[in-house]
Every structure is written in C-alpha cells, then in structure tokens.
Amino acid sequence: MGILRAATDLSDKQVVTYASVYWSVFSNLVAVIIIWMLLRKQPRTTKIEKGEPASIGKSVAYALLGFVALLFGQSLSVFIMGLFGISGLSPNTEMLGELARAVPLMIVFTSILAPILEEIVFRKIIFGGLASRMNIHVAAVISSVFFGLMHMDMTFLLVYVVIGLILCYIYTKTKRIAVPIAAHMLMNVLAMAMQFIVGGSLL
User: Fold this and answer.
1) Does residue 14 lie in a domain region?
2) Which of 183, 181, 186, 141 has the alpha carbon at shortest distance from 164?
3) Active-site annotation holds for 184
4) Which positions ≥6 away from 87 have C-beta within 8 Å?
5) Which domain holds residue 9?
6) Which UniProt keywords apply (predicted)?
7) pLDDT, tens digit, 9 for 90 and up, residues 59-69
C-alpha cells in the first residue's frame, strides 16, 4: 500500500483494492514455486498415487467430465440448500468477482494460482496423507470439510464440501494431481466469466 501511495495517484479505496490483488497474486505465486520445489522430487508414496497414473487421454477426459460434475454438484447442492430456505449468492465469489472487475490481474489468482495451491494442499497433501492412514472415504470427507472451512463461507459449506469430494474422486481415479487442478481451473474460469458477463455467481 505504501508503494502504491507513493508511486500512483490512486484513491485510498483503490490503493486497498490494488494492494490486496497484487499481494494475493505475488504471495500465492511464491507459494506455488516453493511447494513445487519441495514436492517435485518427492516419491509417489501416498495410497492415492500408488499404481500407474491414468494416460494423458484419460486424464483429459476426467478433467472435462470432472468439470461437468462440479457444475452439476454445485447446482444440486444449491437446490438442496434452497429446500432449507438458504438462497442468495456466495459472498466469497462475489468478492472475488468485484476484485477481478476492479483489477483484472485478480483473474490470474482466481483462475490459475488458487486452484493449483488448493489442489496441492487439500487433495495431494491432506487427502493423500489421510488416505494413507485411514479409510479413503473418511479421508475425502475430512479434507473436503477443511476445504470448505478454508473459504470462510459457512452458508455455502455444503457446496464446497461437494466440490471437494468430486475433486477427491477425480484425483483418486487418475492418480494425477494435474487433473483436479485442471477441472478446478475450468470451474473458476467459468465463475469469473459469469461475473463479468451477467454478474451471476458460480462457486
């Protein structure tokens, strides 16, 4: 914020917005690089990754079908929430959309960096680690609940848990973390597109 105030004529509100976006992109980019350096030489030792990974063609198919499954899972979750009188848009998605409209660089964070980090942390590390020590289904639920809580949007917790479970399934079937990352990226790209085009909200 200090750099922006000294180098630009942005208003205080704009300084806060731009600083938030620039810091999110920078810090998460650094985190991705560090995690990649730490994990790139690690052996595939978790229960999820043992065995032969899916072929490239099968992995692409799972990424695309997973993307469709994520959209269906979100819709079903929102429908179930509606039965209990819970409606409206996700504050988390609305906030990210507003930041992206103000500073388009935010799209890089939302569509690329966030999916990479979240899949490595919640699927590869947490889910993979837990699955090697307990029932794989219990591990999927626990990691998905943590994934939902991380978004700090308790009203839409069910939606995030369902998303997490679908991504765990994709990872388990392909044994490639790149596959849930790709499906997650597609979902977030669509969410951002909806924010820009119609002002709607996907999660």
Assistant:
1) yes
2) 141
3) no
4) 81
5) 2-197
6) Hydrolase, Membrane, Metalloprotease, Protease, Transmembrane, Transmembrane helix
7) 999 999 999 99
Q: How far, in Å, are 3, 22, 101, 183 from residue 10 at the CA level?
A: 11, 14, 16, 37
On whether residue 185 sits in a domain, the answer given is: yes
First to last CA, the chain: 29
203 in a structural domain: no
Q: Which of 94, 119, 137, 151 is catalytic?
A: 151
151 is catalytic: yes
Rg of the chain over CA atoms, in angstroms?
18
In a domain, 128, yes or no: yes
Per annotation, catalytic residue among 49, 118, 119, 184: 118
Domain tally, the chain: 1
CA distance 7 to 31: 26
155 DSSP assignment: G
Amino acid code (one letter) for 139: A
**From first to last of its 203 residues, what are the pLDDT tens digits of the chain?**
888 888 888 888 889 989 989 998 999 999 999 998 888 877 777 889 988 999 999 999 999 999 999 999 999 999 999 998 887 667 777 777 788 888 888 888 889 999 999 999 999 999 999 999 999 999 999 999 999 999 888 889 999 999 999 999 999 999 999 999 999 999 999 988 877 776 544 44
Grouping H, G, I as helix, E, B as strand and the rest as coil, residue 2 is: helix
